[in-house]
Predict the structure.
Amino acid sequence: MPVVVQLPAGRYLTVRAAADAFLDTLPNPDTVRAYAAGVGKIALRLGKHRPLAAVADDEIDEALEAPSLSSTQASLSKDPSLPLFQKDPSRSGGGCGDAG
């Protein structure tokens, strides 16, 4: 069942911080790992360091409907076998930490 996540108020929130906040709500570590790749790709498409408030609804729609990032991943990483995002062991509930 979908859950609404209340994001922290009164502070600068990036796309990545919002993605991590969502992943932190997932109780199952296997689900976190499975979702982290997709959520991480969406965060990259939107610009993970951008302020969440600056992302327009239509940008989110486009990011969700865009084709796979496999070609983008290859151009961003010297080793395309490395994931763009992986579980950040310093976060208790998971997260989409940088692979590099």
User: Anything to note?
Assistant: Confidence is low (pLDDT under 50) at residues 71-84, 89-94. Strands lie at 85-86, 97-98.
